[in-house]
Every structure is written in structure tokens, then in C-alpha cells.
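Support request from a user on the community tier.

User writes: "When I paste my C-alpha cells into the form, the page sometimes reloads and wipes my input. The last time it worked, I copied everything first. Here is what I submitted, just in case something in the input itself triggers the reload:"
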């Protein structure tokens, strides 16, 4: 068992209203003191339990592999991605018709419009069709 592995410990018996359980902690942090503190927390002054065949003890061990250093530069250059990806089309405008332009661009692509390239590139035809849709 490695120090960074996770461990959960629980004790259950018929005399207890609730099981005594230490939630997942690193194995190096699971000590007798921690287990006894949890037993004291659960047991009330009138409760007791007998160590016999009805007592169930469960220990769950999760082995965690040591991680590497990861890849450096885990970021996406969005501008470059949009330019390189053919499935993304950047709508560039300053006339507050972005939604209309996007809808027109998508619809003309689906419809196979003969001026699709001009519309995709944001030429005047895209503006005209967007204004027609918007107004």
C-alpha cells in the first residue's frame, strides 16, 4: 500500500444505529487515533457493541497511480483553431446582425446556395441576406 493510496474503513454490527465509518483518506492519514475518534463520535454513552461474529469490518483500498508531469502548453489558441477548422465559421461584423448572419450562413450552406463561398467569407451578400431576414 502506497502512502497516497485511498482507504475507507467501516464497522457495522446489529447493536449500532449507524455504521462507524472513516471516509476515504490517504492511507498514511488513517491512524488508530482517527478510527477511535470516529468510534467515539458515533457511539453515544448508552451504546455498546460486542466483538463477535456479527461484527463486520470493511476496508476498501483504492490504489492511485503516481501521475506524471502532464503535457506542457495545455491551451488552445482559439483564433488559430477557428481559422484552421473548416467546421467553424467566424462571423465578423459590427452591425449587431450576428445572429441573422449566422443563421443565413448556416441555411445557405445546407441549401447549397451558389454564392456560398461569398456568404461564408462575409461579403455583401451575407449582409443583404441578414438584413432581409432581420427586418
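"...and here is what came back when it finally went through:"
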Amino acid at each position: 500500500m502506497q502512502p497516497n493510496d485511498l482507504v475507507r474503513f467501516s464497522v457495522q454490527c446489529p447493536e449500532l444505529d449507524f455504521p462507524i465509518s472513516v471516509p476515504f483518506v490517504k492511507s498514511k492519514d488513517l491512524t488508530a487515533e482517527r478510527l477511535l475518534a470516529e468510534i467515539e463520535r458515533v457511539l453515544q454513552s448508552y451504546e455498546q457493541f460486542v466483538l463477535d461474529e456479527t461484527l463486520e469490518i470493511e476496508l476498501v483500498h483504492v490504489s492511485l497511480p503516481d501521475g506524471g508531469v502532464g503535457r506542457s502548453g495545455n491551451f488552445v489558441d482559439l483564433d488559430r483553431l477557428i481559422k484552421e477548422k473548416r467546421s467553424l465559421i467566424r462571423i465578423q461584423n459590427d452591425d449587431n446582425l450576428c445572429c441573422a448572419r449566422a443563421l443565413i450562413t448556416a441555411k445557405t450552406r445546407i441549401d447549397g446556395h451558389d454564392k456560398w463561398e461569398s456568404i461564408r467569407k462575409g461579403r455583401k451578400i451575407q449582409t443583404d441576406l441578414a438584413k432581409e431576414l432581420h427586418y
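Agent notes: The reload is a front-end session timeout and is unrelated to the input. The CA atoms of residues 82 and 89 lie 7 Å apart. Residues 98-111 form the longest helix (14 residues). Escalated to web team.
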